[in-house]
Design a protein that fits this description.
2 helices
Length: about 80
């Protein structure tokens, strides 16, 4: 299991491959406002396309009526040759 995930609920999304990003945005705003989450940690890989997920979470946080900590956990990929 990846560090930072143990004991947490972990929705999974890929803004590059998935369609309907507005659905993600609506669901994130609902999680923030209705599920009353205390914090949101966005775990991304270090590849450029994963930055879209962080931007989506930042936009949802801006649209939500509640304010809370938004964190980023970067999963670095290391190749050994």
């Amino acid at each position: 299991m990846a560090p930072g995930l143990k004991g947490n609920r972990s929705p999974i999304a890929c803004p590059k491959l998935d369609e309907g990003k507005e659905v993600y945005l609506e669901k994130l705003v609902a999680l923030i406002d209705k599920a009353l989450i205390n914090t949101l940690t966005v775990m991304t890989m270090e590849v450029p396309c994963c930055a879209g997920l962080l931007r989506l979470a930042q936009e949802a946080a801006a649209q939500a009526s509640r304010k809370f900590p938004l964190n980023r956990l970067l999963w670095e990929l290391r190749a050994i040759f």
